[in-house]
């Protein structure tokens, strides 16, 4: 699902948006932090006739961090987010917020805000759209002005949302998601269609929501480059299954087998001994060591502890985009050969 600029009326999916009015992040009143909420996905599974969209998917989204939910088109991201938000029933598995499913939350709109698609009444002003939403959700109408200010749309608040640019619509959708001051924000492809200035604004805004205010932020994208500078952690899916979960640092360093680290030292043998003593696999070639399955930080720390001088320490992988491509190549979606569930099972 995408921010598609449509003006369909929706009730359950808070919408977004942008003006070139404000570039400073202002997400929330003051610097108060929200109650931390952990999102846990476990065994989530969903099929549509002969397509298994999500298959036994499990991962955790931590408070105070921005987690990128990445995968190629058709990998199952939207289907997963819909199940997380209680908009679609899973065939199996659960998605919980501090242990409760969306349906079990006492005040779901105060716990979770979502930006799934742009959807506004085109004749309504941005401010009115937010006020209508406040009334429907039982929030004080003053919240409309609070969130307009947060996303830098105060000056455009009285203009018809139908005349907003895509960036402004995305800011308006984000403002809608923030009305309930939720601890969790789920954003589906929020940078879609934004210009570089809008992307920079969004990046600062999202990071502020997580890092300064302790919110749990899950941002989906099919492009790693789009979220690379925004997210702290990544969850990569392919064909509905978990491909990789970890910090950006782990992904960059090619840890857990995605790549190797090159180390140069005037004492290669002593360094190799120190690393091997910790069960780390090392290949020595002159003054160069090639190390698999560990981050540059881990190797640097081990060398420091052993008192070994280093002349070079770097990831040998050829870049994030290449790692991402390698991890997800050919994993757009399952194409089960038959609608027969037994035959589908055989394709797992
Ligand atoms: N309502 C539906 N009916 C049938 N098939 C569906 C439905 N929704 C999703 N699918 C299929 O499930 C698979 C996963 O789709 P999904 O939209 O979740 O992927 P995605 O990762 O969000 O992709 P994109 O980045 O293109 O939005 C795809 O093969 C898609 O065609």
Write a concise synopsis of the structure shown.
This protein is an alpha/beta fold. The chain contains 12 helices and 14 strands.
Give a verbal description of the structure:
It is a single chain. This protein has 348 residues and is an alpha/beta fold. It folds into two domains: 212 residues, P-loop containing nucleotide triphosphate hydrolases (Rossmann fold), CATH 3.40.50; 57 residues, 2-Layer Sandwich (Alpha-Beta Plaits), CATH 3.30.70.100. Helix content is 31%, strand content 23%. The strands form three sheets. A six-stranded mixed sheet has the order 6-7-8-3-9-10, with helices on both faces. A four-stranded antiparallel sheet has the order 2-1-4-5, with helices on one face. Strand 9 and strand 10 form a beta hairpin. Helix 3 packs across helix 4 and helix 4 crosses helix 5. The radius of gyration is 23 Å and the shape is elongated. 44% of the residues are buried. The structure holds adenosine-5'-triphosphate (ATP). The site of adenosine-5'-triphosphate has 13 residues, from strand 2 and helix 1.
């Amino acid at each position: 699902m995408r921010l598609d600029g449509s003006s369909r009326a929706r009730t359950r999916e808070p919408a977004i948006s942008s003006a070139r009015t404000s570039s400073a992040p202002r997400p929330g009143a003051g610097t108060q932090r929200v109650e931390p909420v952990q999102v846990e996905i476990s065994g989530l599974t969903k099929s549509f006739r002969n397509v298994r969209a999500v298959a036994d998917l499990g991962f955790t989204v931590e408070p105070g961090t921005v987690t990128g939910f990445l995968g190629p088109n058709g990998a199952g991201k939207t289907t997963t987010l819909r199940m997380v938000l209680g908009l679609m029933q899973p065939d199996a598995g659960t998605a919980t917020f501090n242990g409760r499913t969306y349906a079990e939350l006492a005040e779901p709109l105060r716990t979770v805000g979502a930006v799934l698609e742009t959807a506004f009444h085109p004749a309504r002003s941005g401010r009115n759209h937010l006020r209508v939403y406040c009334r429907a959700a039982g929030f004080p109408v003053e919240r409309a002005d609070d969130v307009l200010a947060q996303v830098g749309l105060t000056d455009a608040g009285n203009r018809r949302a139908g005349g907003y640019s895509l960036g402004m619509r995305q800011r308006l959708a984000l403002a809608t998601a923030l009305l309930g001051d939720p601890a969790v924000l789920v954003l589906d492809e929020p940078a879609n269609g934004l210009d570089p200035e809008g992307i920079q604004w969004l990046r600062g805004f999202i990071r502020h929501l997580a890092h300064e205010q302790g919110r749990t932020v899950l941002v989906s994208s099919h492009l790693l480059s789009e979220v690379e500078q925004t997210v702290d952690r990544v969850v990569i899916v392919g064909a509905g299954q978990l491909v990789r979960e970890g910090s950006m640092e782990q992904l960059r360093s090619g840890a857990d087998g995605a790549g190797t680290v090159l180390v140069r030292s005037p004492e290669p043998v002593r360094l190799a001994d120190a690393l091997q003593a910790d069960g780390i696999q090392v290949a020595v070639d002159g003054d160069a060591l090639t190390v698999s399955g560990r981050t540059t930080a881990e190797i640097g720390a081990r060398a420091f502890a052993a008192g070994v001088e280093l002349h070079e320490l770097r990831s040998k992988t050829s870049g994030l985009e290449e790692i991402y491509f390698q991890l997800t190549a050919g994993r757009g979606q399952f194409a089960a050969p038959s609608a027969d569930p037994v035959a589908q099972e055989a394709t797992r």
